[in-house]
Amino acid sequence: MKANKNLIEGIVKLGRIELALSYRIPLIESMAAIVAYTSCISVFMVIFQTIGLNLVLSDTLYNGPENVGAYQQIISERATMSYALAQTSCWTFFTILVPLFFAFTLARAFEDGTLRTLMSYPISRTMLLTVKTLVFIIVISIPVILIPLLLIATYLPSEAIVNYLGLFIISTLLSVAQLSVTSILLSVLSKDAATTAVVGVLLWVGLSYLSSLPTIPIHFLMLCSPIKMLSNYAVGLYPEMINWELLFLLLGSLAFVAALFIIGIRVFRRVEI
Amino acid sequence: MTRYRFNRLSWLLICFGIAGVLIGITIPSFGMGDAGQFDPDELRGRIYFVVGDVNVDITVNEGGPISFYVLDWNNSMELVRTQSLKTIDSIFVLENITHFEGIITIPVSGLYSFISQNMDNESVAFRVDMSRVLPQRHIFYPSVLVTTIGMILFQAVRTPRSPLKEL
Lengths: 273, 167
What we know:
The complex is a heterodimer. Chain A is mostly helical. Chain A has one domain (2-270). Chain A has ten helices and one strand, in the order H-H-E-H-H-H-H-H-H-H-H. In chain A, helix 2 runs antiparallel to helix 3 and helix 3 packs antiparallel against helix 9 (226-234). Chain B is of the alpha+beta class. Chain B has helices spanning 3-26, 73-82, 137-158, 163-166, and strands spanning 32-38, 42-50, 54-62, 66-72, 92-97, 99-104, 110-118, 124-132. In chain B, helix 1 (3-26) packs antiparallel against helix 3.
């Protein structure tokens, strides 16, 4: 019990050090603002589209409540589409930002000796990398998940419901985790900020382009962009797919992230600092 | 709250405010409007999302006058439910017009329906052109306010303490 408490305290303390070292003012603030801008433009792009409203007053067969239901359904579909677009737009933006972030926080720490200083404290390498990844996933995912929801809640009527919200949250976390563990792996393999930045950005921009192609197989999307896969599913691009297949694909994505993370930790434990 | 946290908060407000100002100025402006021919006893309109005032140009090309209504979302759904304009509270009304050009003030951001009604006994050909008035004030002015608060906070946090207070 006491060991667990010490472990949690250690993680929290290391998390605070990580926040102070890697997330200097105004990094988080500007990232959140860029997420807000991207989300706002994405949400507006969808909800700016017009909805027709034509009525014939003398129509005796008219069914008012049924039509109100139809409009509410349209609004919910718009909310889901705008949430999906906001998530994928933010992901596209992060494909550039995340490799740069890890290049200038982790790979640079190899070059300037910060990592050696940090390792002189009683911290295990596994713990350091785990905390670094967790802090990043939390810091990035919170605005990406919450800001589009806040915009939808502010600007759309209360009837607007974002469908598959739970799955969207899971796939956002998975996508951010994929980006971060890949960048961490690149950082510990190269131990060079410039290499990590160039290779990471080229890799993810390439994958981002490939994932936007209409003929791309769904299993490829599962490996490189779960959020894109779920967005395609939510807007009805895979009508033949059933729910358990989607869950299976998301689990596959989780397994892929976990495998990359374990490889990253193993490399980091053996690498010379 | 420590000075560090106030500093973070001020940066957050400044960054969000600038993002909002940019959105208020460069907001995507799709063409809005409606045109065509409609019969007597027919209501014809479109629902649009607006975050500021709207510039409207209405022209009746053929036939008699029309009436023009702007309704918020709740009243639009009430109209769809009841098929009647009698119990509806419009935020803007023009009755029996053949031409109008002006700006409609939108009180709160949201979905609004812009509806035309044929007031004649014959078909009417009409055209409604609308555009958003930039900057969209329901985003722009709150964002300017947030940026200003952020800047004031930033300045207050960064202001060095008076040497007299140190003594």
